[in-house]
Recover the amino acids of this structure.
C-alpha cells in the first residue's frame, strides 16, 4: 500500500497495523456494537485511503487526521440511526478459559450499564481515551478543548464511574 | 483493580479476518496517478524558445529554395 507519490514517506503497512486497533476500539466504545464498529472502521480507512493525497505531513499528524475522519464517520452513523445503540456484550474468543470468559462478560455488562447513560461528549472522550488510547493532548486537539479541560472532564467522569464500578462489584 | 483499569475491559483487538479483508480491499483500489509538471517560468520560456527555434529550422530546411541550393552543391561534388 505504498504506491502513491504524495505519501511515499508514509509506511502504509505500519500505519495500518498501528492505527487499525485504535480506530476499531474507538468505534467499539463509541457505538457499543462489534459489527457496527467493524463497518465504521472500514469506512474510515477507505475514506482515508481515497483521500490520502490530501495528507502530506508527518506521521503523528496523520493519526489526528485519521481520527477526524473517524469522528465524522461516527457522527454520520448516529445521524442515520437517530438513536444510540445499546451496548452489546461480545462473546469472548474460544481460547479464553471459562472463568475468564465469564468474568470478561460480567465486566462488559457492568461497563455497559455505567457508560450507557453518559452524555455524548463524555462518551466520546472515554472512547478516544480508553478505546483509541489517545493522550489528553491529542484528544484536546481533536475535539477543540484545552488539554486541561479534557483532563478535568475525564478525571471527573472516571472518578464517578469508578465509584459506581466498585459499588456494583 | 486500580484507578481506571476497569475502563479498558471493552477493548479488543480487531478480528484478524476483518483486518486482512479490509487491507486487501483497500490495497486492491487502483492507485490514482497524478502527473503534475511544475517547471519554473524561466524553464518554460526556454522550452518555448527551443520549440520555436526547432520549428523554424525545419521550415527553412524544407523550403524549396534551400533544397535547390543543397542539391546543386551536392551535384557539384
Amino acid at each position: 500500500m505504498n504506491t502513491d507519490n504524495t505519501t511515499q514517506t508514509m509506511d502504509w503497512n505500519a500505519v495500518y497495523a498501528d492505527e487499525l486497533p485504535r480506530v476499531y476500539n474507538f468505534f467499539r466504545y463509541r457505538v457499543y456494537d462489534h459489527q457496527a464498529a467493524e463497518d465504521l472502521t472500514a469506512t474510515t480507512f477507505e475514506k482515508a485511503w481515497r483521500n490520502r493525497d490530501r495528507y502530506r505531513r508527518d506521521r503523528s499528524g496523520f493519526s489526528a487526521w485519521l481520527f477526524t475522519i473517524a469522528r465524522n464517520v461516527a457522527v454520520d452513523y448516529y445521524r442515520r440511526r437517530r438513536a444510540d445503540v445499546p451496548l452489546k456484550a461480545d462473546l469472548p474468543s474460544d481460547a479464553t478459559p471459562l472463568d475468564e470468559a465469564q468474568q470478561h462478560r460480567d465486566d462488559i455488562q457492568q461497563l455497559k450499564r455505567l457508560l450507557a447513560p453518559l452524555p455524548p461528549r463524555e462518551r466520546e472522550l472515554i472512547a478516544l481515551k480508553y478505546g483509541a488510547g489517545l493522550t489528553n493532548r491529542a484528544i484536546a486537539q481533536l475535539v477543540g478543548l484545552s488539554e486541561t479541560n479534557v483532563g478535568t472532564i475525564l478525571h471527573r467522569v472516571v472518578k464517578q464511574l469508578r465509584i459506581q464500578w466498585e459499588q456494583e462489584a | 483493580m486500580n484507578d481506571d483499569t476497569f475502563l479498558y475491559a471493552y477493548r479488543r483487538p480487531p478480528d484478524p479476518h476483518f483486518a486482512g479483508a479490509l487491507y486487501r480491499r483497500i490495497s486492491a483500489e487502483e492507485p490514482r496517478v497524478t502527473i503534475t509538471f511544475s517547471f519554473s517560468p524561466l524553464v518554460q520560456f526556454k522550452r518555448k524558445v527551443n520549440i520555436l527555434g526547432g520549428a523554424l529550422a525545419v521550415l527553412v530546411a524544407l523550403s524549396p529554395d534551400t533544397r535547390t541550393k543543397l542539391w546543386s552543391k551536392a551535384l557539384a561534388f
